[in-house]
Amino acid sequence: MRTGNPALSEKAFTVLDPSAEAMTINGTVNKTAILLALCVLAGVFTWNMVYQSEFAFGEAGVNPIAYPLMIGGAITGFILALIVIFKKKTAPYIAPLYAIAEGLFLGGISAVYEMQFQGIVLQAVTLTFGTLFALLLAYRSGLIKVTENFKLGVVAATGAIALVYLASWILSMFNIGAMGFIHDSGMMGIGFSLFVVVIASLNLVLDFDFIENAVEAGAPKYLEWYGAFGLMVTLVWLYLEMLRLLSKLRR
């Protein structure tokens, strides 16, 4: 079993305890809903700080604690994600904190995009969840077959995207714009973002398949939180890429 999502690696659900209560699909769905709710609530907090700061602070600029909260949320979310990935039993406690941290970041960055492009956040949210439910329906109906070649292709493409982003970040540190085209609003930039959105979406299919296999294998109950956390990782990535793609199209 393969997935491009680092949270749902091949060994993610191999710690089985026959005496423990088994993981279920419904339980994982419920945990995912809880994480999404926490993410949205935290996002509303920083959204208000950034989006309403124009009226509250005038020429003074954004609420001074808004950006530190955003950056702190992103860094904290990354650290918490690593903890959950390497210590799966912490998922019931750390996954909700991860959702809150990511919410602080997403709320702020969403407000920044919204101030530039009115209505873009609603479009990105609609497209993200529309993609989620459409792919879930396609997967459950058997319209999409998760074959070994399908898995290998998505994982390889996900890894390639990660390398491109890493190379772009390193080059930007040295003021080298060799890969700046991926951030531009030209045809190449839009094409790249569209490709990333497609691969991020296909990772959802791999996540569905992996969680279903874990349930069939009798994974322990606490891994429902881990499965929900893995889905959150992919959804956060997909939402951010939707924002990037839509902003390029608007420009």
Structure description:
By secondary structure, this protein is an all-alpha fold. The radius of gyration is 19 Å and the shape is globular. The N and C termini lie far apart (40 Å). The longest helix has 30 residues, at 187-216. It has helices at 25-51, 53-56, 66-86, 91-116, 120-140, 148-173, 187-216, 223-250. The chain has one domain (20-250).
Biggest sheet architecture: none
Helical residue percent band: over 70%
Order of helices and strands: HHHHHHHH
Overall structural domain count: 1
Report the oligomer.
Answer: single chain
Radius of gyration: 19 Å
Descriptors:
251 residues; mainly alpha; 73% helix; globular
Q: What's the quick description here?
A:
With 251 residues, this protein is an all-alpha fold. It has helices spanning 25-51, 53-56, 66-86, 91-116, 120-140, 148-173, 187-216, 223-250. It has one domain (20-250).
Give the arrangement of secondary structure elements.
Elements: H1 25-51, H2 53-56, H3 66-86, H4 91-116, H5 120-140, H6 148-173, H7 187-216, H8 223-250
